[in-house]
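WP5 quarterly update. Target: MarR family transcriptional regulator. Source organism: Dietzia psychralcaliphila. Length: 146 aa.
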Amino acid sequence: MNADLRLDQQVCFALYAASRASTAAYREALADAGLTYPQYLVMLALWEQDGLTIRQLGERMLLDSGTLSPLISRMEAAGLVARNREARDARSVTVALTDAGHELREEAGRIQCALLEKLDLPPEDLVELRRLARSVVSALGRADSS
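Structure tokens (predicted):
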């Protein structure tokens, strides 16, 4: 493989720039809903399956509890989620949506649709982009653990 070191030829830079642009677009759109982008990701996971443990959320979001716990604390202070210790295992903390957290789902759907329209890519390109991004995460995750 040719070692072309020009910036515009780097996959890592393309991913970095795309991630920054995507996060910035969401940041602006989510501000009115009172969510940060990482909080939005937590909400997506909980809208999909409410009542996940911190550990399960971390696994879904590829985050450690040290990163996730302060995020959940801020969301709890904002009234979006509630944390509960499991009766059978006090070390396990479950995160559940509050009524306010459930109510944000409709607004988040509108935000998602608006950003997808702005992106203006055919659905099959979005599917392929997601597949390729997951492949990168999977490949680099395997390399990380060896």
